[in-house]
Amino acid sequence: MNNLNRKTHICLVGNGRLATQLEKILKENSFSYSHIFRSQNSTDEIQKQITQSTHIWLAINDSAIESFYQHYSGSGPTATWVHFSGAHNSNTIFSAHPLMTFSKTPMAQIEFDKIHFVLTPPRQNENQLTFDDVLPGLKNAHSFLSADKKALYHALCVVAGNFPMILWSEVQAQFQNLQMPKEALNTYLDQVTANFKRDGASALTGPIVRGDIKTIHDNLNALSGNSLKPIYEVFLKAKGVKL
Predict the structure, then answer these.
(1) What span, in angstroms and rounded, lies between the C-alpha atoms of 189 and 239?
(2) pLDDT in tens, 150-162
(3) Which CATH number fits domain 161-238: 2.40.10, 2.60.40, 2.30.110, 1.10.1040?
(4) Cystine design at 102: which of 17, 29, 180, 187 (Cβ 3.0–4.6 Å)?
(5) CA separation (Å) from 163 to 72, 87, 166, 231, 243?
(6) What does pTM read for this prediction?
(7) Which tens digit of pLDDT belongs to each residue from 118-174?
């Protein structure tokens, strides 16, 4: 993977899940890089590392991105500054959002290479940098997205990635109340996901697709007083089902 100009040096900032993942990739591919922690490194140490870097990668909270840049950008005025937020738009910093969820255990290189990055240039400088200009040495697939479309993009990511987990967690808890094994639900969800990846929207099954109004009424009656009933009703409305 590493095919960098010898002068390229990346300064990685942050200590969360994404920063841990990025450091694994940088280290395993022998990138020239330094890793700084805002809570551990002094201001002088941070300034020194930034001064020596060609790229500053900010894997930090959205609320800290602009203040960190304003405080330290003078130490690296010619460096390429990059943040990884899917929601934040910056006037001065390039955005490279990895369309992926990260766990406490970093993924292997072969999995990381499958991640699609979504790039958004800063508002004050919309000159189109290449992927290699922003994330040198990485070979991931990528797309460019304008700042005005980024809020919708991130909202869709939240709906797709977070909402199912909220539903699954609630169903799992209620399965336990029914003394149903967790493995049974996991097998079902694995197949549901596989079907959707293969067939898209046509993979949907169940009473809504069949127009089975009696079963839908029975489901709603069974969910009376249950936190999942309003969600069921919202999905009926979304699919245009009239009872």
Answers:
(1) 21
(2) 999 999 999 999 9
(3) 1.10.1040
(4) 17
(5) 37, 17, 5, 11, 25
(6) 0.88
(7) 999 997 766 678 999 999 999 999 999 999 999 999 999 999 999 999 999 999 999
